Amino acid sequence: MTKPVPPVAPRIPHRIEQLGRVRVDDYAWMKDENWQQVLRDPKALRADIRAHLEAENAYTKAMLAGTEALQASLFAEMKGRIKEDDSSVPAPDGPFEYYVRYDLGAEHPIHARRPRGGGPETVLLDEEALSKDHAYFQVGAAHHSPDHALYAWAADTQGSEYYRIHVKDLASGETVGAPVESAYGDFCFSPDSQWLFWIWRDENARPAKVFRRAARGGEDALVYEEADDGMFLGVGVAADDSHILIHVGDQETTELWLIPAAEPTAAPVVAEPRQVGVKYALDHWTDRWVIRTNADGAVDFKLCVSDAAVPARASWRDWIGHRPGHYLAGFATYAEFLVRAERVEALDRLVVTGRDGTEHVVAFDEEAYALNLEGGYEYATTATRFVYQSPTTPRQWFDYDMATRERTLRKTQEVPSGHDPSQYVARRIFAKATDGAEVPMTLLMRKGTPQDGSAPVLLYGYGSYGHAMEPSFSIRNLSLVDRGWIWATAHIRGGSDKGWGWFLDGRKEKKTNTFTDFIACAEHLIAQGYGSRGRIAAYGGSAGGMLMGAVANLRPDLWGAIVAAVPFVDVLNTMSDTSLPLTPPEWPEWGNPIEDAQAYDRIAGYSPYDQVSAQAYPPILATGGLSDPRVTYWEPAKWVAKLREHATGDAPILLKINMEAGHGGASGRFDFLKEIALDYAFALWAVEGDGKV
């Protein structure tokens, strides 16, 4: 049988001069000059680019043709672990309780409610029915109005994250008013149910303005306009319904604007003006404000309180002080209690504080676990809800009475095909980084898995934006673990796994710590007998895909395969293009190479696309989405072309672009699993099958 031949991308040199530095990009032509139009209408993609991407997809399909049965098996296994007619634990709110459920075999859920305590169901939104006319369908925010008369949802039908907001009258079942166009996926009702606050995305797909319109339709009134292209916007309501909140911020700076709920058409007032490097979040706790902030050197954050009507910083009083290494991740307020989420050494706990000042801790005893506060709609209650899980333990939903400290298990995630936690082992180990830092790893394996280096390993990492990789339960990972693999999650710097300082040590001038931490994790796994060189598959997506590109350049010898999902690999070009949606907002994370020569040189020194060189790369699979506004399709396409041009070995380098989706891939809960099955099949094929070279 003839071996498939990879597409050869034309090299068309494009000279770029910037800050006295010159670089030549041979594959810049892959970026459609009308990319904004492509986001809204993928059919607008330039013909030569489409032909190249389709040729890449055909080549990948041909190369992996021998894995199609394996992909089907992996998909069937993962699907078999999902309860097809599943439903959420109902969340009470006044006379009703709200929930989502899936019909048997449905890709998308039904949003519904029923009278509190039982009664007939009312369908609020049938996503499955609405999705039938679209290749891609994703609902962002979906909320009922506080008076329970309306239901609104934001829908994206192409993966571009331009949403359309619809409002439905629950008495008549009819939509009211014209849909909100070009919206962000975030919106809120005013506490009096009369107004809808929503965020407009500009032509470059950035959230730029907050508007207000009558909830049942009408003219849009501008409420807030952000002049800084680098800021994200959000809208919400205080827990006690006292204020409407407008959140403005980037990775290192925040600012909150307040609108009294009693005057929803009033102009917003700033709580505390933005100051670069100062982050704060606030909520109103009946008679005072509670503020979570990193001000005054509180790297891992502290809680303050303020009795002022407008909580400017001068009115803040320290309440829960800063403790290095105890990362205060967030909080939720109730009439008589406040719950804060903390993380210490990559383990979560909840701390409940009463108005009388008494405190108690909610925690668990497993070696590695995740604990997430889910909360609820109601403020005047002693009940909160949290979700517990671990790599071996399926998700468990608990209602927790903050007054009596009683836990009530409301639901355990069902695994229809069966799951016996006693057959699996989860471990927490630590690798020593090049500078001596202790990097946690969470391992999952079947009991009896040999520790002699013979087991293949999948090492997963992210390490950006302060996102922690929680040791959660995954029905997907079991498909590798059940085949004798060890799944290892690296809690590397750039995430907040060990606190906000752990994040700060993996950004800007310290970004390379993320990459060297990941390499140190691989080397520690080898040293401890958990794996061996060439039998480790590295896996990461988005900014984690940048990690994949970096470690491919730095240590190609370690990996038996690399899977880079929607990889952010063209860092220097992207951070130099102010028209792209996330460029100005992400300068605080990476630096601004347009104005800062040091930032330019630093980014150029690790940007995976720019650092591709003549060496033997391992087998690589890169994936992307045509309408992705976060990591544009041309990043993985350019990277793959350059890798093939420079690679000295004959390891396969593959590209798969979803021509009907964006950053998150396929929108259906089962269709998405087919993409994961492809990733896993590639790893199995490369490490253990005929893809290994």
What does this structure look like?
The mean pLDDT is 95. The chain contains 13 helices and 37 strands. Helix content is 19%, strand content 32%. 49% of the residues are buried. Among the domains are: 26-79 and 439-688, 3-Layer(aba) Sandwich (Rossmann fold), CATH 3.40.50; 335-414.
- Which of globular, elongated, flat, extended, rod-shaped describes the shape? globular
State the strand order across the main sheet.
30-31-33-32-34-35-36-37
Q: What percentage of residues falls in helices of 4 or more residues?
A: 10-25%
Terminal CA distance reads 18 Å
Structural class: alpha+beta
CATH architectural grouping of the domain at 26-79 and 439-688: 3-Layer(aba) Sandwich
CATH class of the domain at 26-79 and 439-688: Alpha Beta
Largest sheet: 8 strands, mixed
How many strands? 37
Q: Taking Cα atoms only, what radius of gyration do you get, to the nearest Å?
A: 25 Å
Which percent band covers the strand fraction? 25-35%
Identify low-pLDDT runs: none
Mean pLDDT: 95
The name of the CATH topology of the domain at 26-79 and 439-688 is: Rossmann fold
Superfamily (CATH H level) name of the domain at 26-79 and 439-688: Alpha/Beta hydrolase fold, catalytic domain
Number of helices: 13
Summarize this structure as a short list of keywords or feature phrases.
single chain, 693 residues, alpha+beta, Rossmann fold, eight-stranded mixed β-sheet, seven-stranded antiparallel β-sheet, 13 helices, 19% helix, globular
Describe the SSE topology.
Elements: E1 14-18, E2 21-25, H1 35-40, H2 47-63, H3 68-80, E3 91-93, E4 96-101, E5 110-115, E6 122-126, H4 127-131, E7 138-144, E8 150-156, E9 163-169, E10 180-189, E11 195-201, E12 207-214, E13 221-225, E14 232-237, E15 243-249, E16 254-260, E17 269-270, E18 280-284, E19 289-293, E20 302-306, E21 317-320, E22 327-333, E23 337-344, E24 347-354, E25 359-362, E26 370-373, E27 383-389, E28 396-401, E29 407-412, E30 424-432, E31 438-446, E32 457-460, H5 478-481, E33 486-490, H6 500-504, H7 512-527, E34 536-541, H8 543-554, E35 559-565, H9 571-574, H10 583-590, H11 597-606, E36 620-625, H12 634-646, E37 653-658, H13 671-688
Parallel strand pairs: 32-33, 32-34, 34-35, 35-36, 36-37
Antiparallel strand pairs: 1-2, 3-4, 4-5, 5-6, 7-8, 8-9, 9-10, 10-11, 11-12, 12-13, 14-15, 15-16, 16-17, 18-19, 19-20, 20-21, 22-23, 23-24, 24-25, 26-27, 27-28, 28-29, 30-31, 31-33
